[in-house]
Design brief:
299 residues; alpha/beta; three-stranded antiparallel sheet; 21% strand; binds S-adenosylmethionine
Length: 299
């Protein structure tokens, strides 16, 4: 099959174990191997053995292991490096626990187990560290394929594919439909968009030393420091900030901190007149009393 940026494998295929939670379709690995034709393959977290089984059936040698076999990607080293392709299918944060009581392979909790990290930021840090260790094992021109799914916890979306670092030159971003997940059988109350896809991020190691890096920065920004707001949105945000209704002097006082207002003021523009014009002409503002305005739903 030709590999495209959208894949779906309702029929899982042969290899690994479908009962192993978080397993992936052998067909995905098969498509990757058919497309990139690696001579040497690496998977440091094989879980039920999907990639190993597929690579073996396609006569592609390599190194395949997992924390369950004592191989901690954050500390261990493969016996040789210079792989053409590495497949990295990390845990879905702590959604499916692997080691420890109740985990997929049980036993004692393993401190190296990424699925035991409870703090999301710490998980992303460990994921990045592991991803770079895997990237380093590639030969120049080799591909790293990272399969990750986003997670929703207590209604909050954690977009792992967006928050993790991308090491290497982006080569493909493949959206994969998820099938037969336990979470898809969970009754959602309809408030949230159910996650039914995951992503395969394929990057290329183009240089021995220089690594193109994509890093996401999540931060809160106070847009009052920006000058780009339109007057309509500025007035609406001011009214929202004041609880949906306000006297004009309170609205002026609230808005005077805004960069757009300050710049207008410095140029001698009568910005208060602009605010009044917005209030009088837009359908989502209503005059409730003399000098008092509120937000309404436009008809
Ligand atoms: C999503 S599963 C991989 C599933 C696999 N692709 C399959 O089809 O069965 C994630 C795997 O990461 C492993 N793992 C977690 N932390 C690890 C670490 N530090 N080093 C190596 N493997 C780790 C877990 O044991 C688990 O098998």
């Amino acid at each position: 099959m030709t590999l495209t940026s959208l894949v779906s494998y309702p029929d899982r295929g042969q290899g690994g174990r479908s009962e192993f939670r978080g397993n992936c379709s052998p067909r995905l690995v098969q498509d990757l191997i058919e497309h990139y034709k690696p001579k040497l393959f690496y998977d440091p977290a094989i879980g039920s053995g999907t990639s190993r089984d597929v690579a073996q059936s396609m006569n592609v040698p390599g190194f395949f292991s997992d924390l369950a076999q004592g191989y901690n990607v954050l500390e261990s080293e493969p016996p040789y490096t210079g792989f053409d392709m590495a497949f990295w299918h990390p845990p879905y944060w702590n959604i499916i626990q692997y080691s420890g009581p109740g985990g997929q392979w049980g036993g004692a909790g393993n401190p190296g187990d990424l699925s035991l990290i409870q703090d999301y930021g710490e998980f992303i840090k460990a994921l990045n560290e592991a991803t770079f260790r895997i990237y380093e094992t590639l030969k120049r021109g080799g591909r790293l394929a990272v399969l990750v799914g986003d997670v929703r916890r207590k209604g909050v979306l954690y977009p792992i594919q967006r928050d993790m670092r991308w090491y290497g030159t982006p080569d493909a971003f493949i959206v994969k439909a998820q099938h037969n997940m336990v979470s898809s059988r969970t009754a959602y109350n309809g408030n949230f968009v159910a996650i039914v896809t995951e992503y395969l991020v394929v990057t290329k190691k183009a240089d021995a030393w220089i690594v193109p890096l994509r890093v996401t920065e999540a931060k809160q920004t106070d847009t009052r420091k920006w000058s780009g707001a339109t007057w309509q949105n500025l007035v609406r945000a001011g009214l929202e900030f004041l609880g949906g209704e306000a006297e004009l002097p309170a609205l002026y006082e609230c808005l005077q901190e805004h960069r757009r207002v300050q710049e207008s003021s410095q140029k001698g523009v009568d910005w208060q007149a602009i605010v009044r014009r917005e209030l009088q002409t837009r359908p989502h503002f209503r005059n409730v009393d003399r000098g008092r305005w509120c937000l309404v739903q436009p008809a």
